[in-house]
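Supplementary Methods, section 5.1.

A reviewer requested that the exact input to the structure prediction be made available. We therefore reproduce it here, unchanged from the version used in the analyses.
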Amino acid sequence: MKPSSLLNNLPVNVAGGSPNRFAYAVLKQTLRPRRTLLVLALLVLGCYTSSLAYEDYGGCTACHGNFRGSTSTKGTIFPNNNNHDMHRNSSNMGTACNLCHFGSDRVPTFIGKSNGTSNNSGLGCTGCHVSAGLRAHHVNNGVAECLDCHDAEAAPPENVKPPYYGTPDTKANNPGNTVQVANTNENWSVGDFLGLDNDGNNLYDLADYAIGPYRILSISPEGNNVRVTWLTAGGRTNTVQAAAAVSATYSDLGASVVIPGVGLVTTNFLDVGGATNLARFYRMKSVVP
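The structure derived from this sequence is encoded token-by-token as follows.
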């Protein structure tokens, strides 16, 4: 994951001084350094029993439920009460059977191989659930058996289409739920509009900074105070920071704000006494796992 920043000049004189003293908004991502662990023995974590569990979907059921079930153990509800039918039915994802299944018996369903089609090589589940991102998501949630056999590697950003997306063999096309409309983008389950965590950083679709917008909308004086309003997305953790000069050290203004819900969210923070400063510069800090 690469850090990104965006500098916005906002022509708002928050200090009551000369007209050229404006508030700046700097968007900054704080990244947790990656660490590669050498695992010398198989470690049983959570509901996963061994690294061999990842060869086919049979090892995933304890945490993710029966693939023909109506819900997952995570609470996801599937249309027609059947996860398999959600993937297969033309009224939903309309995915070609050979994208997922291997051999003539169809079972087991392998994570990393399938028959494929004339349009797609047989990548099994990883044709939509990118392998590097799938491993990173598990590692970031305390399930590290993947590293027994696989090296840690950076996953493509959330906005990069997985291999099967946008091909004639499935309706899956957009890797981000940019609109909350059923049966489009990654909105195939019932009602949650959460989508997938393709890059494994625990930020789903719009919550991921590669997809969802993140910017300060306004900085407005209110008496001796200043209200900072910004556009973000549910599932993020944001912190308002301020400094006396654009290149000075920025300090947090209060605790981090955990943004609730799913989808785009406009929220604000009141900097009490902020307008009493000769000059005040603001930026948003985000925490990315």
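The first helix runs from residue 61 to 64. These observations are discussed further in the main text.
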